[in-house]
């Protein structure tokens, strides 16, 4: 393969890897916090139903809340994914544009 | 000879033109808004300190002492929801293409809405429900823990998303 092509491919890989490594660390931390908190919330609701602190009306409210928080957890991850894709896309286009710019 | 040179340059000119058009920065998510992040930081501190103050539960007899704080917090999160939703959602060719690729791989599309606005709405609804319970019956300790847990989870979602928008 032409040396210039090899350099461009390497630069694209480096750009993507750097962004991904940084963003994945954030995603991992967020996911771990959320999964743990949602599990804890489930146990609190269970305890509240058993000891009578959570009545029938509140039980429905908290169960709906659990469903909404799981749905929004996934949507937050998707939102973060959009930002990551955008960062990679723009960084790659930037790098390609610079490569073209250097020969014209 | 002249025709051959012309033919040679046509694809190059076309390629440069294409790159010029597509090299514009693509926006797949809303812009970062410092005011939202600052407001959510301030209000999350106020919320946490309010919840800590009543962490053992409440009785309806002294509800009036808390009414003002409930109203202020509900108002703050309703305002945050409006602020978050006021930004336009990017809807461009790139988003469309990425969603097509994801759907082809049986994955759901990347978000077309604001997870933070949804979280602010849910925090406001939780505080409204807390206020009603407090006023009518008082809140028992385990129910209070569940209210606190629900608010914390939605706050984490909103703060993480809004902070992540800072590219």
From TrEMBL, chain A:
Organism: Aquimarina muelleri
Name the record gives this protein: Uncharacterized protein
UniProtKB/TrEMBL annotation, chain B:
Domain of life: Bacteria
Protein name, entry field: Lipoprotein
